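>> received
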Amino acid sequence: MMLRPLALLAALAVSLSACAEKGSRPSTSRGSDEAWAHLPESVTNNAVAAAEVDGRTIAYSFAGLHAGKTWEDVTADAYACDLEARECRGIAGLPDGIGRLASVAATVENRIHIFGGYTVAEDGTEHSTPEVWIFDPVSETYARAADMPVPVDDSVAFVLDDRYVYLVSGWHETDNVDLVQVYDSAEDRWFQATAFPGDPVFGHAGGIVGRDMVVCGGAAVVPPETEGGRRSFVHSNACWHGEIDVSDPAVITWTEFSGHQGPARYRAAATGSERAGRVYFSGGTDNPYNYNGIGYDGVPSRPLDSVMYPRELRPGAEWGFDIGYATFGTMDHRGLVEWNGAFFTLGGMNDAQEVISDVRAINFD
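>> returned
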């Protein structure tokens, strides 16, 4: 796998309410001492999802990168955070013990599925991993599912009908792929859906509401200008809507949004909210990097402190982003967890490119 990187969306700023009483709705805050909770260790580029245990919402973190940000700090560790109790603890890590970055997690029938990621060797060699692990939050045990047909990392995952998991685009070994790979959890099998029509990307983000997917940002590959030259990576300023066919889960109608608004985002935290009928994005950066927080251009990447959501789920005359600002910014995320009217990031990096242990709360009122 080679080193990789995002673009521009522009801005229609609308104020978003970012606070609420801590007992009822968590509030945004700056500073690690004001985080909603703390993971036992700092971790970033970790797969994040939530499940219910005894009627409580538990947010989970799997794999990622610890504070040293070297190949030796790539981890298979996992953590569980009781959001109501504001307490986090370590749990058994991925069963093979192999550390990986840029995995993605999705919850199906209250079991968390962890897909792919990539390993980093001492010599810097990176390898996309095919494994799919299924974590049972009640017994806190893992099972192995069918491997991905094409191993990807830095992808984005969407769940349909509490059965199908869609992995859209992402990085495979040496390049981005335009594949939409679908895992059928009921039959433990994979099939291909309608390919992603835009430039293939990694580090993108998005969410699903009903059968409507929204995918934005990431980094695309630009071929070398001359034979024997080096290829480069650019921001993607694209944002796509995908509608999954009601009678055939392999058929997706893709439409590109036009008039993009808001900052381009790389490794933002995002999710779809059935409750709100919206897809939310938070943080990320406008300067793509591989995994240490230093951009491909050699400039330290800094997280965006803005949050946004498309005003409409589907392309149309009223489409555009509502933009707001949190009181902090984080980046290097692989998911966003909804609980009690707020949304949570677990770990990530701060504006000094430091790996953090913070569990942060964001409101998109």
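>> The chain is about 0% helix and 40% strand.
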